[in-house]
Amino acid sequence: MVTQAVLFLLETVTGFLSAVLLLRFFMQVLRVSFSNQVGTFVVELTNWLVKPLRRVLPGMFGLDLASLLPAYLLQVIFVGAVFSLRPGMDDGSVEILPLLILWRAALTTLRLGIHLLIGALLVQAVLSWVRPYSPLSVPLSQLTRPFLRPIQRLLPPIGAIDLSPLVAIVLAQLLLIFL
Predict the structure, then answer these.
(1) Most buried of 34, 78, 83, 162 (most Cβ within 10 A)?
(2) Contact at 8 Å (CB) between 136 and 127?
(3) Are 88 and 59 in contact (CB under 8 A)?
(4) Bridge partner residues of 109 (DSSP)
(5) Could you report how far apart the first and last alpha carbons of the chain are, in Å?
(6) Helix or strand or coil: residue 63?
(7) What are the residue ranges spanned by the domains of the chain?
(8) Which helix (H) or strand (E) holds 98?
C-alpha cells in the first residue's frame, strides 16, 4: 500500500512537470506566443530548470532541448522507479533493463505529448462554443493550427461546424493505440 502511494505521488509530480515542460517545448517549436496567461504560467513554472540547462545544452535544429530533455529524464526516473519496485525480476531481464527503461520512458513522453495535443484540442473546441474570445483561445489556436490545417483542407466545415478537431482527436487516439 505504501508502494502504491509513493508511485502515485511520483507519477503525479513527474507527470505534471513533464507535461508543463513538453508544453513549453511545443510552444517554442510551434512559435506560440508566451505573452499570455498560459505562457507566463509555463515559463515561471519551468524557468528554474530550463534556464540553467540552456547554458550547457544548446538547442538543435531550432528545438529547445533544455525543455525536452528534462521531460524525458523525469519519465526515465518514473519508469525506473516502477521497474525497481516490481517484484520478481530475474537475472536475464536485468541485463536489458536499462534499455527497456529508456525505451518505455521515450514512449511515455511521446504519449504524454499526444495527450497534451488532445487536451488542447478539447479545450479549444469547448472554448469555441462557450467563450470564443477567451484569452486562452489565441495560444490554443496557435498550438493546434499545424495539426488542424491539413485536416481542414480535406474536410471543410459542414454547416458552419468545423469537424477537424474531432478528426484530429480520433487520429491522435489511433496513434496512442499503436504506442
Answers:
(1) 78
(2) yes
(3) no
(4) none
(5) 29
(6) strand
(7) 2-178
(8) helix 91-130
